[in-house]
Amino acid sequence: MRSSILFTSCLLSLIERSFSLTLTSGQRISSRMRKNQNHQDTRRGPKSFFDLRAIEQWGEENGLKEHHLKTIYKVVMTSYSCDRPSRHEESQVLQDKLRALSFPQACIPNLLSEFGYTCTIRNIQQSQGGAKFGIQLANGKFVESVLIRHERNNGDVRYTVCVSSQVGCAKKCSFCATGTMGLIGQLSSAEILEQIHLLQQYVKHKNLPGKIRNVVFMGMGEPLDNYDAVHESIRGITHQCLFGLKAKKVTVSTVGSSAQKIKALADEAPQVCLALSLHSAIQSSREKLIPSAVSISLEELGDALDYHAKKSGRGSMLEYLLINGVNDSNDEVDSLAEFCLKREGNVYVNLIPYNPTLAGDNFGYQTPSDERISDFHDKLKAAGVKALVRWSTQNGRDANGACGQLVLTSIT
Ligand code: SF4
């Protein structure tokens, strides 16, 4: 499973948000976007079709049975058009489909007045490794999602969807442009699910080969800071009448500032993969990269990882962003190896060469040379740690969509 994820770490967080402007102007535009986000926070509309609890409650209130809800989901999953029809046209399509499937006629007007699609694709930027989407939420705020294309040697194509769980982020990691925004809002479970649905419809609409096979919470935001919505969205991702993915095809990426939430995820969704963005196994160095790491020691973090590894039975996955002269020294390799070798079960380390971002530029961060990256990798392997260099995370540089590069900039 792990090998199928090309982008790793807090991908979008690392990927960040950048649609059409250059990195040098990103900070200015980021401020404008923040302003827009605040100004557009007044739209109201129907509840989302992907608000599973609301749909279930509505069904109960209307005396509907389980198979009726399945019909709703079937129609909802196949009906959204990327051409953005009017709400009236959209309702007409849904109505016709529901009628054709013998859904109780008397309930249809009420269903379609109370529920609808609430998120919209506003911007798409293609890159070599996939595409990056600017998605507007019902309240007018924006997030980004990424469709990552994988092509196997036999020509089979599959996609990973990288979703956002928050608008902005409170964690302020030094390499990450999302962190420069601060936390603007929390996404609902429905808004998380709608991101996946929109990208799925895009693949269908464009007649692209292949299907979505993985979902990674590596977009804007720290997923464990929006735990309940993320947990509820996983119910939708794995729901047989919705996206139907196995839990092991879902990865939650965290910078790990809460041992309690890592353990809660292990208890409540043990088959969901956890990716810990470690970035340094030296506490002081880690705190420089991830300021929120000040609230948790490496021992506590290791303990939470071990707890998760025991519950999942699959070991631990660590993400390590390699930054020239910052966390690529021999001391860092030794500390990382020591941290990994102490863990319960197998540990897999993804080494991610830093991609230039505006946020990282402020700290003078640079990508290590290929030789330095390979040397770090070799030393880690020689110490007995399983590690891979994710060279592929650089594939999206042409669209500023590679790991760490997304900066939501073009929303006006
Ligand atoms: S947790 Fe850190 S890396 Fe992830 S989105 Fe927030 S600021 Fe960025």
Q: Compute the number of helices.
A: 14
Low-confidence stretches: 1-36, 38-43, 396-412
Order of helices and strands: HHEHHHHEEEEEEEHEHEHEHHEHEHHEE
Gross morphology is: elongated
Oligomeric state of this protein: single chain
Question: Biggest sheet, strands in spatial order?
Answer: 3-4-5-6-9-10-11-12-13-14
Structural class label: alpha/beta
CATH architecture term of the largest domain: Alpha-Beta Barrel
As a percent range, the share of helical residues equals: 25-40%
Q: What count of structural domains?
A: 2
Largest sheet: 10 strands, mixed
Subcellular location: Cytoplasm
Organism: Cyclotella cryptica
Signal peptide: 1-20
InterPro entries: Aldolase_TIM (IPR013785), Methyltransferase_A (IPR040072), rRNA_lsu_MTrfase_RlmN/Cfr (IPR004383), rSAM (IPR007197), rSAM_sf (IPR058240)
Task: Outline the structure in words.
This protein is α/β, with parallel strands linked by helices and 412 residues long. The protein folds into two domains: 2-32 and 121-406, Aldolase class I (TIM Barrel, Alpha-Beta Barrel), CATH 3.20.20; 47-116, no CATH class. Helices cover 37% and strands 19% of the residues. It has helices at residues 11-15, 26-39, 52-61, 66-79, 87-100, 108-114, 189-205, 227-238, 259-268, 283-289, 298-312, 330-341, 358-361, 370-382, and strands at 47-48, 115-116, 120-127, 130-136, 142-151, 157-162, 166-168, 183-186, 211-217, 250-254, 273-277, 316-322, 347-353, 386-389, 405-406. The strands form three sheets. Strands 3-4-5-6-9-10-11-12-13-14 form a ten-stranded mixed sheet. A two-stranded parallel sheet has the order 1-2. Helix 7 (189-205) crosses helix 8 (227-238). The longest helix is centred in the middle third of the chain and has 17 residues, at 189-205. It is elongated. Bound molecules: iron/sulfur cluster. Residues 10, 13, 169, 171-173, 176, 178-179, 220-222, 255 line the site of iron/sulfur cluster (SF4). Its main location: cytoplasm. This is Radical SAM core domain-containing protein.
